[in-house]
Hints:
The complex is a heterodimer. Chain A is an alpha/beta fold. Chain A contains twelve helices and twelve strands. Chain A is 33% helix and 24% strand. Chain B is 78% helix and 0% strand. In chain B, helix 5 (89-124) packs antiparallel against helix 6 (129-143), helix 5 crosses helix 10 and helix 7 crosses helix 10. Chain B is globular, with a radius of gyration of 24 Å. Chain B starts with a helix and ends with a helix.
Amino acid sequence: MTMPLLQVQHxxxxxxxxxxxxRALNDVTFDVQPGEIFGIVGETGCGKTVTGLSILGLLPxxxxxxxxxxxxxxxxxxxxxxxxxxxxxxxxxAMIFQDPTTSLNPVFTLGKQLSWVIRxxxxxxxxxxxxxxxxxxxxxxxxxxxxxxxxxxxxxSGGMQQRVMIALALACQPKLLIADEPTTSLDVTIQAQILxxxxxxxxxxxxxxxxxxxxxxxxxxxxxxxxVLYAGRVVESGPTRDVFxxxxxxxxxxxMRAIPKPSRHGExxxxxxxxxxxxxxxxxxxxxxPRCKFTMERCRQETPTLEAVGYDHYAACFLxxxxxxx
Amino acid sequence: MRKLEFLIRRLLxxxxxxxxxxIITFALARxxxxxxxxxxxxxxxxxxxxxxxxxxxxxxxxxxxxxxxxMKDVLHGDLGNSIATKRPVRQEIxxxxxxxxxxxxxxxxxxxxxxxxxGVISAQWQGKxxxxxxxxxSIFGVSMxxxxxxxxxxxxxxxxxxxxxxxxxxxxxxxxxxPIEIITNFYLLDTILTHNWIAFKDVALHLVLPAFTLAxxxxxxxxxxxxxxxxxxxGQDYIRSARAYGLPNRLIIYALALxxxxxxxxxxxxxxxxxxxTGAFFVEVIYNWPGLGLFTVHSLLNIDYPAIMGITLFxxxxxIFINLIVDILQAxxxxxxxxx
Lengths: 326, 340
């Protein structure tokens, strides 16, 4: 394997709230290879978005990273000053967010918003910037460039807005794009288009993408490798095919069974009972134990760590030591 | 096309509001328990004189007829004659209004130029000492009565320090040394147009204290409003994405965020202009400023009802006009408004 583009190592992150400290990330470790699409999957509140924000250094003020390293191209981003970090954002790592309707500034034309970003990072003239913008718009499949540049966000559909967001994110040719639930707020047909677009851009420009989603179906279609997050911890990671064929953690297994399939028409949909504990700092033992079908005595006392279960395939579960997940 | 439609609709509603105001003021003036005709001729009038004047002024006609007649005159630009001065009310107003407008305009300029940046800085350093200072002083600005603040700054800057003149619009000696050539009746403008720099400096110095006194309330209000709006906007997704694209903080705050936050602030500015018009009346009395305020106070004390009605109508028109401008500005700043 080549040198990873991004390595997140043993990341711990806490929120200070009025009711004490809330541990949001607990020993999160994964890496992203150049040119791949890496999926991060998990339920709401398991720490997906804050993982993305940590990489970009955009965490709210109440959050502190207490431990760990985020190596990008071999450099620890956590050691960067805010000025250095600003140079990384947009130019090296870009991020797109869940809801394009609220992520674009409502009172400026799209052309203006794009030209700011491009001119900030390239220091080029308005005219050159416009040329680049029209190229970017074409590459994300937006027709009628001139009209869109003069438009305000509310004048476009959600799918088109997300394309503009992607164009904005790619404007400076970053090496890594973090896409946080990029399709969740869109129609199903538009979802497929946006995912296909991301895949195509990944191939064409050789950028790596971190795709954050709660939808395993999206991961299956799009990602090369993935990490499953539960209560601020990576519980399983590996190549998408291996994880899907042979899930090693009961949580991954449960998520996969919860994907609705036409072949199971008429059957009751499977769900994982219970919810994610919000504060993983409180948990003793495996955080998934209260919802797990296979909980053993040991699960309530010790916290399992990631162990290799196959080539580049890791899982944090004691079950394997006993027998295979059924 | 939609913008034009918006404008026409706003103008029409403004016109309806003005009609409403005219009805109310007219009715109020008639409800006041005093006989206008008696006031008109003075305390020693005989009953038959009062009756004659009543007839002359049309006061014996039914109230609706009186109103229609009054409105006809108003639309022809005739607001009637002042009972106290016997001169046309329109002339009284137009002669004094520039002084008030100059004061009001300077005060509002101060309020915006000081209030908006204060609000932004306060929001940017939310919870820090800068924020605490701005918030505390804006509470002072909002809650300090103008007459008290006026006296206070007069004591400090005139009596103790001697830096600024006590009252009036211009030094009376100037009439002989550097007389102001009246063109627009806005002294600042007139002195600039005639390159009368000595007079300009004098006029400007005379403006400082009254303008500041009048601006204190709007500064506080605008600063607080801007702060609240900025804090809300800075928490929006599009600000987070602007950061994710690596845009510099200064651009994010002063362009991206402020343009979004200025909408609610504009509304407040519009409202405070109207409020400050009444505030200006107090300030004018304190500083002996020869504007509408002094005239209004005298008219009220004399129950000079044509003058009071004229001033009210005039003020309401100004108020509606300012609100119209605010609405147009808002539609211009936020493209979503005119379309809804």
